[in-house]
Amino acid sequence: MPGYRDTLVQGIPNLQQSGMAKRDYYEVLGVSRDAGEDDIKQAYRRLAKKYHPDVNRDNPKEAEEQFKEVSEAYEVLMDKEKRRAYDQYGHAGVSDAFGKGGFSWQDFSRYSDIEDIFGGLFGGGSIFDMFFGGRTSTRQRRAATRQMRGADLRVRVTVTLEEVASGVEKKIRLRRLEKCSVCGGTGAKAGSEASICPTCKGSGELQQVSRSVFGQFINVSTCPHCRGEGRVVSDPCGTCGGEGLERREATLAVKVPRGVGTGNYIPLRGEGDAGRRGGPSGDVIVLIEERQHPLFERDADDLHIDLPVAFSILTLGGRVEVPTLSGRAKMKIPAGTQSGRIFRLRGKGLPRLGGYGVGDQLVRVMVWTPQRPSGPLKKEIEKLKELEEGQVPPPSRGLFEE
Question: Which of 8, 85, 200, 281 is geometrically suited to a Cys-Cys bond with 223, CB 3.0 to 4.6 A?
Answer without folding.
Answer: 200
